[in-house]
Amino acid sequence: MNYSKLLKKVEEYTAAFYAQHADERIVFSTYARAKEVAFIAEKIARHYKLDDRLFFIVCASAWFHKTGYLTGILEAYETKSAEIAENFLKSSGATEEDINEIKKCIVSTRKPGDATGLPAKILCDVNTFWLGSAHFKEDQKLLRKELEGVKNHKIGGHEWRAEIIKMMESHHFLTDYCTTLLNKTKEENLNRLKSKQAEKSFAAEPEPVAADDTDEGPAEQTIPGRNKKPNNPDKKPTRGIETMFRVTSSNSQKISMMADNKAHIMISVNSIIMSAILGLIIGKLDNYRYLIFPTIILLLTNVATIIYSILATRPKATRGVFTPEQVENKSVNLLFYGSFYNMELKEYDYGMRKMMEDRYFLYGSLIKDTYWQGKVLGRKYKLLRISYSIFMFGIAVSVIAFTIAALIHVY
Fold it and tell me: Where is this region: Disordered (predicted)?
């Protein structure tokens, strides 16, 4: 069986399924997340070097996993997802054995502790991958918003945090790959959530304040919170930040173009001088032997100047690849072509979507991009300064050498 071709059909079918069941309330279980889940499942499957059949089972299960949820079934949606997968795979010519294995994987995510077999364990870990992700904070907020929308019920912050903490404390990754990669970050996420829960619980307790212990006047005491200003450290002047990055990037590009033009000027001027020397003087040095030494000085000046000018504009080669771990850790700059030009579109698309969903990742990438532009410009201008200095002093020494040689020859 051509599992690669069948998996392509699964991807196309689930993409259409998500489009048909689009719902503005669904902000966590989106098609973008389904692509991310399938991508992670593929990575883990490749890590374990699964054969074509098991690879297909893992990836197809990941694609179908949340389809039942999209139909409006919130509790035990896995059964509906397995049914949808079965109907499609039967019509696509999949074997009964493969269909049953995929259904088993999907249903196993309801109770991960009962999962058996590597494919089922991989899918369970992929489904809870976000618990150990650097994007945990944003993901759990989206999940809360989604559940409030589909259940039409407001979930209090304390109630939500308690539920997530309970889930995380009882959760364990089933594969060595995810245990090694995610356990540390998951514990950090859990500890931060517990700290916030304790902080909010403490802040919620009323603290009696005696009238004599405050400097507020009677008006302020009778109107609580009148002079309090909302303290929202996450609120940033977004437009100002974007303008700053845009201006900085534009300035860097202009300065880089100026550097390239300066290097081009030095290369052109010195090439012309070298051509003139080689064409007019070299052939006549037998008759003007006293000009050999000044000519050598001038040629060396031209060659050294050209070399440094070329180095200033010479691009630096990079590997052009990044890993999912770098995306999760927000350590890759996806705005620079050198980070991704050897990657597949699917992998780059995954990384970019993760970055767009997280403004800290996005701003961090912009900061890195600005920083490395500055480093490149610094190197360019350092080499250009050396090039100009060599040309300036070399020309001066050459002229002096020609003058001295001519005077010695005359007198």
Answer: 197-241
Tokens at 192, concatenated: 């931060």
The string of pLDDT tens digits covering residues 131-150 is 999 889 899 999 999 999 98
CATH H-level, domain 3-174: superfamily: Hypothetical protein af1432 (1.10.3210.10)
Q: Distance between CA 100 and CA 386 in Å, rounded?
A: 70
How far apart, in Å, are the Cα atoms of 357 and each of 49, 190, 328?
Answer: 31, 21, 12
Q: What amino acid occupies position 172? A: H
Q: Is the pLDDT of residue 226 over 70?
A: no
What pLDDT is recorded for position 203?
Answer: 58
> Domains of the chain: which residue ranges?
3-174, 239-408
Nearest to 391, CA basis, from 277, 313, 304, 311: 304
What is the C-alpha separation between 410 and 387, in angstroms, rounded?
A: 34
CA atoms within 13 A on the CB side of 284: 7
> What amino acid is encoded at 217 in this protein?
G
- Res. 368 pLDDT band, cuts 50 70 90: confident
Q: What's the chain's Rg over C-alpha atoms?
A: 33
